Amino acid sequence: MKELLTLPTSLRSAVSILAMGISGLVAAQPSVSALSGTTYTKDMNAALSQGASLSQPVGSVFSVDLDCIRAQAFLDEGITAQRSTMSSIGAGIRYTPLSPEHHAIRPWAGVGLSWKTTTRHLDAQTVDGETYHLWNDGLLYAMEQPIPMPDIDMPEPLARDNVYETMLDRTSHMAAPLRVGVDLQLTRRLHATVAITTLPGGGQGWTTAQAGIGFQLGRGKTYLKALLPDEFLALGDDADGDGVKDVKDLCGGTEPGAIVDKYGCAVDTDLDGVPDHRDAEINSPDLLVNEQGVSISLAEWKALYAPEKGDPTTFAQDSATVISELNAAQMAQMLQSTGNTAAITEQEMLYDLREKVYNPEISYRIQYGAYLAAFAPSADGYTHDRVEAMAGDHGLTLHVGTAYERLSEARSALGAAKAANHSDAFVTAYHKGERITLEEAARLEALRQEAVREAEETYRMVEVKFHVQLGRYTAGVPVEVLNAFLQMGQIEQRLEADGTHRYLTTGVSAEQTAREHLKSALNLGFSDAFLVAEIDGTQTSIAVARTTLIERNSALASAR
Fold first, then answer.
1. In CATH, what is the architecture of 2-126+161-216?
2. Dist. CA 483–CA 255, nearest whole Å
3. How far is Cα 545 from Cα 548, in angstroms, rounded to an integer?
């Protein structure tokens, strides 16, 4: 496309008018279109063509266009193959008799002046420099056909590589393209376009038939009639009536009267779990509040909201209300005070609670940019993240994304930001709303991990499991045994220190259930099957496991 860099002076006026439209100095907004289609030129085979157009209305029926087209055509001449490439760039006047305010389908015609360059190349040799020779059998060879043909083995034919290494000529001249087409206004900004362009002259005329999509630039100061109605563009209903369409609403079912953000979620300024429209204390000092959002003490919270003892289903509800002021011992005390007996569930959920319980003040956010307040762009243009503008140091406005409790989540979000072409984005850390370095955040994370280990040690329940050992093998399992395994359901394979493999049924916490599995194994022919027990993953005797289970159940009963 080097030949397109030198433009004739006749294009300068068109470029000036288009620049005025983009800058907003004229009322109507310009539009840009990208097109693709097919090509026709005499005595050659058609190929794909590409084009682009920038159009600026200058009146009710006329517009100034800046167009560029690139097209190719091919011709197989037997010994050689020829490729012609045409590229043009120019400006023209377009006449559209139907106004965009009243017609969504608008035919048009145009004429202009373009700088047209045509280049012809030949594919006459292979990549190794061997010249093609056409024999009477219609195939290409690396040598001329001998006459008469000798009675010897025939050479291997060549396959054309389509590299087009030899340039025949290049011509450049002015051309007057003629264009006709039709635009279909799909939405306020988007339109489809179909165009036929003829570029005569220069000994070889070209015609392209293309279709594409166009987009209107600028803020839009005029009404355009569209094929798709406004109801379609609304992209669905707003079921909860909060002003955010369902397709963009991340918090469906918002209460009537709630103040919502751009994602349809009720605003909660102090993050105490009570939205602002019901919060009697907008800036609560901590997260322990009553239903009106007013701060209360831990003792008051227990009196108001702690569930009755012995209810094993309330642990998830309990965990949602735990706050940073609780240390490991207080955490264990609160769980015991609720009478929660779901020991295994509690042990698993302690891992999920570690971020919320021990250090909710640490958060990680992606920073996308820092701007002078007077020149800061809107934060609404980000599509892959919930970005907000916040005040930074030295009077700067920062664009930061969603707050994450885990550094790993923030790093994943950074990858998404990089994929969205935000190459300058980076991870930042905050503690109690104040910016800190990642090194300081790592130090606080280490303190939290120590607290997690303390909590797990303070409130830990042993895990007792019973298995049925089906067999022990030094080599492969016989086919009949494998089929029997499949009838037993899920089987665990354990590699022992001596290189043998033990095969066990899935562990269960009730000895009686394991004995039922043992009966099934014996019925299936596992005559050597027997019961084994584990405490926290370590094998032990059935008697010890039974005693441990009785002691654990007694401790749980006393906790009630």
1. Beta Barrel (2.40)
2. 58
3. 5
Which superfamily is assigned to 464-559 in CATH? Sporulation related repeat (3.30.70.1070)
DSSP class per residue in 418-444: HHTT-TT-EEEEEETTEEE-HHHHHHH
Residues β-bridged to residue 289 = 295
CATH number of the 362-431 domain: 3.30.70
Q: What angle do CA 361, 365, 367 make, to 5 degrees?
A: 140
Which CB contacts under 8 angstroms, 24+ apart, belong to 550-558?
Answer: 552/343, 552/461, 552/462, 552/464, 556/341, 556/343
pLDDT digits (tens, 9 = 90+) for 78-106: 777 888 999 999 999 999 998 887 888 99
Joined together, the tokens standing for residue 370 give: 């820092």
Q: How many CA atoms lie within 13 A of 525 on its CB side?
A: 7
CB-based contact 97:136 (threshold 8 Å): no
Residue 529 burial (CB count, 10 A) = 21
Contact call for residues 214 and 223 (beta carbons, < 8 A): no
DSSP state of 141: E
Nearest Cα residue to 30 out of 197, 166, 214, 201: 214
Integer Cα distance of 316 and 314 in angstroms: 6
Residue type, 477: V
Common-topology check for domains 362-431 and 464-559: yes
Q: Are 164 and 77 in contact (CB under 8 A)?
A: no
Helices (H), 290-387: 298-305, 315-320, 328-337, 343-358
What average pLDDT does this structure show over 471-494? Answer: 71
- Domain-wise residue ranges, the chain: 2-126+161-216, 362-431, 464-559
Between residues 427 and 262, the one the model is more confident about: 427
SS3 content of the chain, % helix, strand, coil (to 5): 25, 30, 40
Q: From 98, 6, 19, 92, select the one nearest 51 (Cα to Cα).
A: 92
Q: What is the mean pLDDT of residues 401-422?
A: 87
d(CA 319, CA 321): 5
Which of 368, 362, 314, 357 minimizes the C-alpha distance to 337? 314
3-state secondary structure (DSSP) of residue 257: coil
Please check whether residue 555 is in contact with residue 340, taking contact to mean a CB–CB distance below 8 angstroms: no
What pLDDT sits at residue 431? 87
Angle between helices 511-523 and 542-559 (to 10 degrees): 150
**Over the range 351-387, which residues count as b (16 or more CB within 10 Å of their CB) and which as e?**
eebbbbbbbeebbbbbbbbeeeeeeeeebeebeebeb
